[in-house]
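Methods — Computational structure assignment.
A single polypeptide chain was analysed. Its primary sequence is given first, followed by the predicted tertiary structure written as structure tokens.
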Amino acid sequence: QVQLVESGGGLVQPGGSLALSCAASGSIFRINTMGWYRQAPGKQREFIASINHVGSVSLADSVIGRFFMSRDNAKNTVTLQMRSLEPEDTAVYYCKYDDYRNDDVWGQGTQVTVSS
């Protein structure tokens, strides 16, 4: 069983920056992909970014050039660096773990609010 704990959400002004972290623990398989998704009120959950076990990153078009994802395999932690935040980035951000053999695991979510 894998557990995910997200941290780093909060309130930030437009144009500001935030970093979200997701720490995985438990029965972690070396080959895995971890991702970030977000869900705004009244909208479906959407993909934001992912990074696989060798560090290849995929980003949603809406965040290219503003969001950056990295991972520390030794600590089983991924980080989402968010810059130039816009009010449209306001959402609950969820971390996901996928090891291609078991059901995906989701974190509890962390709120990001971009507002002046």
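Note: The longest strand covers residues 18-26.
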